[in-house]
Amino acid sequence: MPSRAEDIMKGFKLNWMNMRDADNGKILWQANEDLSRPGHDHEARVPKKILKCRAISREINFSSHEAMDKFRLIQRVLFRGDCIEEWFFEFGFVIPSSTNTWQSVIEAAPESQMMPASLLSGNVVIETMFYDDDLLVSTSRVKLFYV
Questions:
Q1: d(Cα 122, Cα 110) in Å, to the nearest integer?
Q2: CB-based contacts of 133: which residues, under 8 Å, 6+ apart?
Q3: Judging by DSSP bridges, how do beta strands 42-46 and 135-146 pair with one another?
Q4: What does the pLDDT look like over 86-127, one tens digit per residue?
């Protein structure tokens, strides 16, 4: 019998995602690939000018067959395997058999703390842990290349 986490993941799909400059709303990157799938080597080619933005607005569109009481994400930025940043996002209740769009703003580190794209490219992995409250549903990893 499948576990609750397996039931959720079986009916979960990340339909699309984009990242915008939060100041002007211009889309800088978008993807239609389901980057939530665990066990795949996901890659994203992101324009290096994204590193110059004061803040990024990330928009995720996802579908879920299962209800979730407290859908949330923990994202870790791994540089050469070491965690250099960690972000927490909470969506809340997910209606069963629904499609949802979720927008979050991510503030940039101060410019003095930013590493150059040439050093980051291929060395950064975004690890995303998908939760329903305290139940870990899935973990996915996306390697970033700055172009």
A1: 22
A2: 69, 70, 72
A3: parallel
A4: 999 999 999 999 999 999 999 988 888 889 999 999 999 999
Q: What is Dmax (Cα atoms) for the chain? A: 52
Residue type, 14: L
Give residue 75's identity as a one-letter amino acid code: Q
**C-alpha to C-alpha distance for 90 and 131, rounded to whole angstroms:** 9
Please tell me whether residue 8 adopts helix, strand or coil conformation. helix
Q: Does pTM top 0.70 for this prediction?
A: yes
What are 52-71's pLDDT values in tens digits? 999 999 999 999 999 999 99
SS3 for 27? Answer: strand
- Using DSSP, state whether 117 is helix, strand or coil: helix
Q: What is the pLDDT, as a whole number, of residue 141?
A: 96
Instruction: Report the pLDDT value the prediction gives residue 75, as an integer from 0 to 100.
Output: 96
DSSP letter for 110, please: P
> pLDDT tens digits for 76-87?
999 999 999 999
Which amino acid is present at 42?
A: H
Residue pair 8/107 in contact (Cβ under 8 Å)? The answer is no
What residue type is 120 in one-letter code? L
Please return the burial class of 124, using the count of CB atoms within 10 Å of its CB with bins 0-12, 13-18 and 19+: buried
